[in-house]
Write a structure and sequence with these properties.
single chain; alpha/beta; Rossmann fold; pyruvate-formate lyase- activating enzyme; OB fold (Dihydrolipoamide Acetyltransferase, E2P); 3 domains; five-stranded mixed beta barrel; four-stranded parallel beta sheet; 13 helices; 22% strand; globular; binds S-adenosyl-L-homocysteine; binds iron/sulfur cluster
């Protein structure tokens, strides 16, 4: 979502006549920030320090969730020029102008009118484009800052999403990934769910692939599961975070699903779309997590066999209930658990990739590879595929997968459909 927000801010500033530049030559640098874990937040301050080392200091704007959470504190601590929250960045041009004339420029409002209407039309995008359809979160998992930094769950209207999708296709997109903090909680004005939106996108000529991320187990409706079996453009990939394989930990996290209810959802998804690639998020070392409870996470991983996944050490976030809980774990215990979990997830990712060898599938060409004549694209299961071809960026190529590594596949071109 930060990539999407960054693109939209760049488009806004382009309208003001600004052009992209390297950080050491720029007049304005916008740091679009993440607050989800402490490490991401600290990085903002070290990046600001680095920008100042170049001799001539650009105007610095801090956007995103760190801006939202820390507000004026960033001005006090780092003396930046502009602070703008994730729901207010349509005001960036005005804030930059204010800062240039020496006025304080801080906007962390969460206005009722969404920012999207105030953003310029999409003009040029890559073949694989992002489209935010839902923002915010009402779920309040005890470890998470998102409900505080991104605000309450809000869905963009059906027609606004379809219009932006069409504009993206006109601007060169062949694949659209629908985005939301809980994208499958998207709900139209008339109560229709994400599956209805996907079915409408399916009708857009020129759009070849639809994806969505990130979803919550409790919003995985039967309609959406059915869409995985019925909508050809909906890719066989599901990112469905579970966080832990232990019910006591899940309860303490306020996850409102259990190990079993999560596994049952995956069974239904696999029934609808047998070749679906599964992904997830995991947190190790939540306060009070015992060895046995961590073992439950490992056994869940053994059971699911994810195609890929993200895993994190628990990071206490100011203002969240978990940050006040007893039972903080030593760093060494968290490190060891993360290593064991990642070893299991890497094993499964390598096995999933190896399983793809011998299959023939479509690859959407996204960029040039390192070698002359080499191009990189994505398989339907979101794996990176490299191949030798004279196909162009945006072409869909039919490829036979001939080799697999831990993080990518090698393919040979069979048939091409031009963009
Ligand atoms: N809405 C999504 C996740 C959004 S945050 C969901 O509920 O599934 C992305 C991921 O960051 C989470 O799934 C979680 O694994 C991780 N995360 C969030 N807060 C964290 C924290 N305090 N410490 C470590 N990881 C965290
Ligand atoms: Fe955070 Fe996701 Fe939980 Fe919302 S559902 S509080 S975004 S982890």
């Amino acid at each position: 979502m930060n990539v999407y927000d960054g693109e939209r801010m760049a488009e806004l500033m382009a309208e003001q006549g600004l052009t992209p530049a390297e950080a050491n030559e720029a007049d304005l640098v916008v740091l679009n920030t993440c607050h989800i874990r402490e490490k991401a937040t600290e990085k903002v301050y070290s990046d600001i320090g680095r920008l100042r080392k170049h001799g001539r200091t650009p105007m610095i704007a801090v956007a995103g969730c760190v801006a939202q959470a820390e507000g004026e504190e960033i001005v006090r601590r780092a003396g930046v020029d502009v602070v703008v929250g994730p729901q207010a960045y349509h005001n960036l041009p005005k804030l930059v102008a204010d800062a240039a004339s020496g006025k304080a420029a801080l906007d962390t409002d969460m206005p009722l009118d969404s920012k999207f209407g105030a953003l310029p039309a999409r003009k040029r995008v890559s073949p694989s484009a992002f489209l935010t359809v839902q923002e915010g979160c009402d779920k309040f998992c005890t470890y998470c800052v998102v409900p505080y930094t991104r605000g309450a769950e809000v869905s963009r209207p059906f027609a606004a999403v379809i219009d932006e999708a069409k504009a993206l296709v006109d601007a060169g997109a062949r694949e659209i990934t629908l985005l939301g903090q809980n994208v499958n909680a998207w709900s139209g004005e008339d109560g229709r769910g994400l599956d209805a939106l996907i079915r409408e996108l399916d009708r857009i000529e020129g759009l070849a692939r639809i994806r969505y991320t990130t979803s919550h187990p409790n919003d995985m409706t039967q309609g959406l599961i059915d869409a995985h079996g019925e909508v050809e453009k909906l890719m066989p990939f599901l990112h469905l975070p579970v966080q832990s394989g232990n019910d006591r930990v899940l309860k303490a996290m306020n996850r409102s699903h259990t190990r079993d209810s999560y596994l049952r959802i995956l069974d239904r998804v696999r029934e609808a779309r047998p070749d679906i690639a599964l992904s997830g998020d995991f947190i190790v070392g939540f306060p009070g997590e015992t060895d046995a409870e961590f073992e439950d996470t490992l056994s869940l991983v053994d059971q699911v066999r994810h195609a890929q996944a993200f895993s994190f050490k628990y990071s206490p976030r100011p203002g969240t209930p978990a940050a006040e809980m007893d039972g903080a774990l030593p760093a060494a215990v968290m490190d060891e658990r993360l290593q064991r979990l990642q070893a299991a997830l890497n094993r499964d990712q390598a096995a999933f990739n190896a399983d793809t060898v011998g299959r023939t599938c479509d690859v959407l060409i996204e960029r040039k590879g390192k070698l002359p004549g080499q191009m990189l694209g994505k398989s339907p299961w979101l794996q990176s595929v490299h191949l030798m071809t004279d196909a162009a960026i945006g072409d869909m190529v039919t490829v036979e997968i001939v080799s697999a590594g831990p993080n990518s596949l090698g393919g040979v071109e069979r048939v091409r459909a031009a963009a």
